């Protein structure tokens, strides 16, 4: 009987260490730094079509230190289970001019980004589905700022503009 | 002598407790106070009882629904305001993606990935009738129980108004 008690106590101690580590992992992943696999052609030539692994920091958007030109990871307004990687083109209060069809230079529209929203666009305007299609993005959907690429090793380095 | 070590040990314990609490509140459930009367009488009904007027209701918000983002008509959800990401609102889901919701002026189609929310107290509620459909990505949890005040402890039930919403999904017809 005694032996089971000792084994149970040790198991609990080990489990609690693992539990605490997993909690720390979650907090780091959600509030400090995480990695993300991004793929698709909408951010060419900045990000590769075959897929890059980037580092995302989760501090700037909570401190309000985002600005236009930043690459951000956002939750898609069209499907909450998907995340998108795009660039902020305009912050709230800015006027943004865009055209849905970049091949025709005459069809352009302008609007002012409303309060609490940002305007995001992919670098590859021809294939990207972004704010030009679904409108200004609520700031609350921003999950973090992409600041560095770690894979493939040939393009290791900081990202930005 | 022993003081720095005691201080360090207390700091470590506080940090551990903080990290665990944050993880549980992010992934499982948390307790939040409800401010305002926009969900009256479900939350904060302004009756004459002493307990009701002393403090706000406290409710249990579960976060497990954020794995799949599968909500039903009548769910009460907590979401970040589309106009100010620092504010959180508590409202009831009246329309899901694909539905047509009737307001006073017209009928609105809820786009993919969005929902239509309204407060139970339609007279004094700032909801989708003012700021439009809310992206489901802004939802932070679903309210399941009232935990305070003690005489109103219980589950928060789904309430639907079939006469105003035309739903495209047959699963929600009952």
UniProtKB/TrEMBL annotation, chain A:
Residues 17-99, 108-151 form the Peptidase S26 domain. Residues 1-30 form the signal peptide. SUPFAM superfamilies: LexA/Signal peptidase (SSF51306). Belongs to the peptidase S26 family. IMP1 subfamily. It comes from the Eukaryota. This is Peptidase S26 domain-containing protein. It is found in: Mitochondrion inner membrane. InterPro entries: LexA/Signal_pep-like_sf, Mito_IMP1_subunit, Pept_S26A_signal_pept_1, Pept_S26A_signal_pept_1_CS, Peptidase_S26.
UniProtKB/TrEMBL annotation, chain B:
Residues 9-103, 109-148 form the Peptidase S26 domain. The keyword Cell inner membrane does not apply. InterPro entries: IMP2, LexA/Signal_pep-like_sf, Pept_S26A_signal_pept_1, Peptidase_S26. Keywords: Hydrolase, Membrane, Mitochondrion, Mitochondrion inner membrane, Protease, Transmembrane, Transmembrane helix. It is a single-pass membrane protein. Pfam families: Peptidase_S26. The keyword Lipoprotein does not apply. It is found in: Mitochondrion inner membrane. Belongs to the peptidase S26 family. IMP2 subfamily. This is Mitochondrial inner membrane protease subunit 2.
């Amino acid at each position: 009987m005694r032996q089971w008690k000792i084994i149970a106590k040790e198991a609990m101690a080990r489990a609690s260490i693992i539990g605490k580590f997993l909690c720390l992992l979650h907090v780091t992943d959600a509030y400090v730094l995480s990695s993300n696999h991004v793929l698709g052609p909408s951010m060419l030539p900045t990000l590769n079509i075959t897929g890059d692994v980037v580092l995302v920091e989760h501090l700037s958007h909570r401190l309000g230190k985002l600005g236009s030109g930043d690459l951000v990871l956002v939750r898609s307004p069209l499907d909450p289970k998907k995340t998108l990687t795009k660039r902020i083109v305009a912050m709230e209060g800015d006027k943004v001019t865009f055209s849905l069809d970049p091949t025709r230079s005459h069809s352009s529209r302008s609007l002012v980004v409303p309060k609490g929203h940002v305007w995001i666009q992919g670098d590859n305007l021809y294939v990207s589905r972004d704010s030009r299609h679904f409108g200004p993005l609520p700031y609350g959907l921003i999950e973090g700022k992409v600041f560095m690429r770690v894979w493939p090793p040939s393009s290791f380095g900081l990202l930005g503009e | 002598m022993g003081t720095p070590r005691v201080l360090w040990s207390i700091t470590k314990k506080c940090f551990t407790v903080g990290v665990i609490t944050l993880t549980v509140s992010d992934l499982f459930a948390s307790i939040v106070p409800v401010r305002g009367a926009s969900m009256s009488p479900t939350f904060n009904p302004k009756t004459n009882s002493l307990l009701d007027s002393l403090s706000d209701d406290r409710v249990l918000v579960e976060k497990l629904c954020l794995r799949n983002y599968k909500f039903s008509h009548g769910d009460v959800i907590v979401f970040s305001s589309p106009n100010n990401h620092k504010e959180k609102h508590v409202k009831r889901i009246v329309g899901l993606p694909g539905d047509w919701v009737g307001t006073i002026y017209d009928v609105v189609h809820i786009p993919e990935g969005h929902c239509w929310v309204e407060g139970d107290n339609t007279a004094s509620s700032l909801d989708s009738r003012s700021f439009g459909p809310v992206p489901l990505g802004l939802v932070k949890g679903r309210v399941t129980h009232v935990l305070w005040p003690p005489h109103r402890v219980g589950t928060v039930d789904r309430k639907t108004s079939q006469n105003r919403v035309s739903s495209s999904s047959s699963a929600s017809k009952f």
